[in-house]
Amino acid sequence: MNLTKFVDKLPIPPVIKPLRKDSNHTYYEATMTEFKQSLHRDLPETTVWGFEGVYPGPTFEVESGEKVFVKWINNLPEKHLLPIDHTIHGAHTDAPDVRTVIHLHGASVEWESDGYPEAWFTNGFQQTGPYFSKEIYRYDNYMPACTLWYHDHTLGITRLNVYAGLAGFYLIRNQRERELYLPSGRFDIPLIIQDKSFNPDGSLLYPRQQEKPVPGLETSIVPEFFGDTILVNGKVWPYLNVEPRKYRFRLLNASNSRFYRLRLDSGQLFYQIATDSGLTESPVGLHEVILAPAERSEVIVDFTNLEGKRIIMTNDAPAPYPNGEPVNPDTFGQVMEFRVVEPLSSIDTSTIPAFMVPFPKRRVQEASKVRFLGLTRKKDQYGREVMLLDDKDWDAPISENPKLGQTEVWYLINLTNEVHPIHLHLVDFQVIDRRNFDVEKYKQKGVLEYTGPANPPIPQERGRKDTVIAYAHQVTRIIMKFGPYTGLYVWHCHILEHEDYVMMRPLRVIP
């Protein structure tokens, strides 16, 4: 749709207030409902799903170590907003169409509160999935200061529920972060970036079929979904009025499949201060920030001495990334606009510190287990591509069963022609390196023969991560220590269309 850019002001998601709080615990309720919301000045109001009557959902702000309890309440209607493919495992006709389960992405939590894909529940908890065990989730927030996000994680329909609007920010703060004098308060702004398409009546458009329709099916899973507009915080191509000072932006790619390669058209730097799971050792100046679905990057942008300027945050990531169609600079080439038009409200005393937190690197020699895990694909009975982890379906016996406290190195061996952002629940990890290899030799003989040198992670990845880009025909190595909980978790590709069909596997941490 031909929608005018930069006519709507950027909304800032509200901060959710707890119902109860004392020295021992904090209790929230967050209710999912269907409602109408204006996503662009020139569009009729759009029916969306959200939490507490807003899309994206309200932001949680908690402290490291704070014991938080959340009751996620499903008050959604029985009929789904979007077309369901009942041929997908977990979404067969014997499951209710509208069911939800919420995952706090990046959090280290007990498995019963992790949002296991088969722990879903319907309106009023009338029906529940086979792994449902509790209505109120517990988050102990053992992590340091970081930017997390919550989103639906229901087996077979995650892509639809997130696209409908079930996502929001969850920020953990601590004293060390405050001592760094980073931009704070209203100068600390979360930005959730998504792409969507609309029908002329303003309703959300999600395809019912692939480009080549599957005969005999009313709806069919698509390989990836790419919308034709970009939204930030639930507005299509918004603008933000800023003061001539430093701002902290928490960038989150919450798109189903689209990657972003972000730049500022003024040519100035992003100063990255944090990766997915927390602050980095030192800031790094970047001309571009690459974000796969689910990745976060915290950056400082300095608008000092730029009074009157208009600066556009641009995107030139092809879709699919990195070898797809080039970006049209007039549409997906633009994300949002910063207008340096506000007067300075106070002296800017915030800093970009030279050092933030220590970052002890995990050594490969510490690992007591190494796993070689192929990223593969096959064709289903309808000729559609199915993406797999380790060549296994979702319900194959659990093969990833690390011991509590065990350090492991995973070799993610991408045998497909596509890129996959791989996410592990429970733990954060460090990226070791990436390396090209002889794909055909591995397929035929199972022999891993490298064809080039190992490439270290790019500067923006040198920190605590929970999602890593596994490029086509490369081995990506990551290292992590499992804990502090045992139980049933998952690992998966975070391209949601891949995750739903069926690039996700259980992961059990054992005592």
Automatic annotation (TrEMBL):
| Alphabetical list of Pfam families matching this protein | Cu-oxidase_2, Cu-oxidase_3
| GO MF annotation terms | copper ion binding; oxidoreductase activity
Lineage, top-rank taxon, reads Bacteria
Q: Please list the residue ranges annotated as the Plastocyanin-like domain.
A: 44-83, 99-175, 390-509
SUPFAM superfamilies given in the database record: Cupredoxins (SSF49503)
Q: Which family does it belong to?
A: Belongs to the multicopper oxidase family.
Q: What is this protein called in UniProt? A: Copper oxidase
Which organism is this entry from? Neobacillus mesonae
